[in-house]
Amino acid sequence: MAQENNLDNGEIKRTGTWLTASAHIVTTAIGSGVLSLAWAVAQLGWIGGTAALIIFSLVTLLTSFLMADCYRYPDPLHGNRNPTYMKMVKTVLGGVQYKFCGLAQYTNLIGCTIGYTLTAAISMVAMIKSNCFHKFGQQADCNISNNKFMVFFGITEIFLSQIPNLHDLSWLSILAAIMSFGYSFIGVGLSIAKIAEKGHHVKTGLTGLVVGVEVTRTEKVWNIFQAIANIAFAYTFSTVIAEIEDTLKPSPPENQVMKTASLIGITSSTILYASCGLVGYAAFGNEAPGNFLTGFGFYEPFWLVDIGNLFIIIHLVGAYQVYAQPVFSIAESWANTRWPQSKFMTKEYNARIPLVGTWRINMFKLIWRTIYVVLTTLIAMIFPFFNNIVGLIGALTFFPLTVYFPIEMYLVRSKMPKYSLEWIGIRLLVGVCLMVALIGVIASIQGIILGLKTYKPFKF
Questions:
Q1: 380, 150 in Cβ contact below 8 A?
Q2: Cα gap 63→437, rounded to integer Å
Q3: CA-to-CA distance for 350 and 361, rounded, in angstroms?
Q4: The pTM of the whole model exceeds 0.85
Q5: Residues whose CB is less than 8 angstroms from the CB of residue 144 and which lie 6 or more positions away in sequence, other chains included
Q6: By the number of CB atoms within 10 A of the CB, which of 33, 177, 275, 452 ranks highest?
Q7: Please, which residues bridge with residue 353 across strands?
Q8: Residues with Cβ < 8 Å from 328, sequence gap 6 or more?
Q9: How far is the C-alpha of 112 from the C-alpha of 248, rounded, in Å?
Q10: Hey, how many other C-beta atoms are within 10 angstroms of the C-beta on 294?
Q11: Could you tell me which residues are beta bridge partners of residue 435?
Q12: Most distant CA pair in the chain, distance
């Protein structure tokens, strides 16, 4: 972010290293996507599940390497810096591609805030169910609607959304990162304990759910596509690669350090993903729940299940803001540019809040941010299908943000000859990833449509 030579204009000295960059990657990567990995592996089986995790990690690693070389352009060692993903796309590919990149990025941000609202509510309900099952037995009727908890989560986010910007949310981001590691390790630990139980035996298979026994042939096909999309969601963190590289000090060269950090960060994340997915599958077998901490494969110790879900809730409270603040910012910047003389847009009022102090409030921000949270909450209430929503977000954003733009930027920067073997290989990779993404989108939408046939929205 700062200047240490004549190419770096800024005031804040960049001091990041491969260690801090690796930590940023792991922190960004580990999130609610891990919760669906056991279910995804159950649809694909030992062979398909393991292969999918490895392939997605290798593709992500490759495109991260390509993006690292585009941080400085046109020369990866002495070119001008591109501190953000969108700036990088605009510099290398031009304005039209830049607009498509913005559309993909903000689709991802908005989609994640919707998904986080749903996931947080599911975890709140799971805590209540966990205590109900502990008190009345595993056969007790402990069903409860998610909707009231989505409303509660939305109200919380309305208040947090009035925090001016991400710089004032650093403490919340750190807390959220710690929580994400906490519930991931709790899930893995509970899975290992379940495997070690006396008499534990679940049905697993090399190809997952058995056609004609557990699912029909059509269901098997759709489930495979949804599972691949769910795994893609876990790997959609390339959008922050440029921002992370921008924290690195200029010497040694940022692209070299970033490649080391990417290798360490993505390898570490994949190991944890594999632990959640493969160990979770070994614990639950073909009956693995869509969310392995809320699907009640675990009943005891109920207090540890509750802690895991509490960690999820705390993480998602912070993660919502990390994803929502850029959406707030771009809308507010546009409005201020469009109506610079409007007091409604610019004037701030001092409000004294007990235990917090004086809070500066702008009416446009207050209304706009509140409307945004209300809309995301309503959409989550209308489409409360965890695996399908996760899969849809993953399929929509993995291809453009993790595959297409990094590869297109690399082709432009490297001036690779058309129809060379390397060019053909890269184009084939892009084509395959596009097909996988499209199939994932279709499968996730199909799952949502099926769910809507029996689901009654807004039922409390």
A1: yes
A2: 16
A3: 6
A4: no
A5: 125, 128, 129
A6: 33
A7: 357
A8: 161, 365, 368, 369, 372
A9: 27
A10: 25
A11: none
A12: 72
**Paired residues of 361 in beta bridges:** 349
Ranges of H-type helices in 383-420: 386-397, 405-414
Which burial class, exposed, middle or buried, applies to 260 when counting CB atoms under 10 A from its CB (0-12, 13-18, 19+)? middle
For strand 348-353 and strand 357-362, is the pairing parallel, antiparallel, or unpaired? Answer: antiparallel
| Per-residue pLDDT tens over the stretch 31-89 | 767 888 999 999 999 999 999 999 999 999 999 999 999 999 888 788 888 888 889 99
Q: What kind of architecture, by CATH, is found in domain 18-454?
A: Up-down Bundle (1.20)
Local structure of residue 14 (DSSP, 8 states): P
Query: Cα–Cα–Cα angle for 183, 373, 234, nearest 5°?
Result: 35
Distance CA(234)–CA(54), nearest Å, equals 12
Taking each helix axis as running N to C, give the angle between helix 363-382 and helix 147-160, from 0 to 180 degrees, rounded to the nearest 10. Answer: 160
Distance CA 106, CA 255 (A): 26
Which tokens belong to 183?
Answer: 């519930």
Closest among 261, 109, 100, 269 to 184, alpha carbons compared: 269
Q: Using DSSP, state whether 361 is helix, strand or coil.
A: strand
* Type of residue at 25: I
Q: Which two tokens stand for residue 316?
A: 């998602």
The SS3 assignment for 360 reads strand
Q: Which residues contact 387 (CB under 8 A, 6 or more apart)?
A: 36, 39, 226, 230, 290, 291, 447
| Strands of 10-111, DSSP E | 72-73, 80-81
